[in-house]
């Protein structure tokens, strides 16, 4: 038994002697490969997240507009859509962008919120260049005394507004963008400082047919 135990101990000793840790060069090579993979993957991941946020913001606005139209028909009275100009972020109160939407029942003596305000994902905005968003031609107003305070921001916002009527149409004024065409639209994209006269490659456009109130989404 003692002999067998001694042989087993020697075998274990040889086994441990045959093993070795990673050398410094091997560790450096592995770290370099991991860093290279991360550098290649990061831009793709960022683009994917940006596209997801844009899609989410576009769906939020389009669905809210559709809900406003249906609510006007169901309640048989006007529902007002307000596109909100608010701070880009809580720590950036002076940087204002159009990135919110709220619906109001204006059939009462004072406007009443139909639903809580909805805001675009961080970094996503509605373009205010009238070439890319004809809804930006609507007059931007500040809230008055009868306008409701919005959760978290009170009356610290500006707005462009229009209404859906009980028959599903809108009160948007006549706007001829091309012969025989009368459509309002807005373009959404990630905030960028690269150009004020051109849309980035990744954007979405939401179109409203004034006479019918129909809402549609278009992507390049």
List keywords for this structure.
220 residues, alpha+beta, minor pseudopilin epsh fold, five-stranded antiparallel beta sheet, 2 helices, elongated
Please describe what this structure looks like.
It is a single chain. The protein has 220 residues and is of the alpha+beta class. The chain has one domain: minor pseudopilin epsh fold, CATH 3.55.40.10. It has helices spanning 2-18, 24-75; strands spanning 79-87, 96-105, 112-113, 118-119, 124-126, 158-164, 184-190, 203-208, 215-218. The strands form 2 sheets. Strands 1, 2, 3, 4 and 6 form a 5-stranded antiparallel sheet that branches. A 4-stranded antiparallel sheet has the order 5-7-8-9, with helices on one face. A hairpin with a 6-residue loop joins β2 and β3 (112-113). The model has no long low-confidence stretch (mean pLDDT 84).
């Amino acid at each position: 038994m003692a002999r067998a135990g001694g042989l087993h101990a020697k075998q274990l000793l040889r086994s441990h002697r045959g093993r070795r840790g990673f050398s410094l060069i091997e560790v450096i090579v592995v770290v370099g490969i991991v860093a290279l993979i991360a550098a290649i993957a990061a831009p793709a991941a960022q683009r994917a997240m940006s596209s997801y946020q844009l899609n989410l913001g576009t769906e939020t606005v389009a669905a809210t507009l559709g809900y406003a139209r249906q609510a006007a028909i169901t309640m048989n009275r006007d529902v007002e859509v307000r596109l909100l100009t608010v701070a880009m972020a809580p720590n950036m109160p002076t940087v204002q962008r159009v990135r919110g939407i709220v619906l109001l029942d204006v059939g009462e003596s004072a406007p009443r919120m139909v639903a809580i305000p909805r805001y675009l994902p961080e970094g996503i905005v509605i373009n205010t260049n009238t070439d890319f968003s004809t809804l930006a031609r609507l007059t931007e107003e500040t809230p008055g005394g009868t306008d409701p305070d919005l959760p978290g921001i009170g009356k610290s916002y500006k707005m462009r507004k229009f209404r859906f009527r009980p028959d599903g149409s809108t009160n948007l004024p006549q706007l001829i963008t091309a012969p025989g065409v009368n459509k309002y639209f807005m373009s959404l994209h990630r905030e960028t400082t690269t150009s004020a006269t051109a849309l980035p490659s990744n954007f979405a456009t939401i179109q409203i047919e004034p006479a019918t109130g129909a809402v549609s989404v278009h992507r390049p």
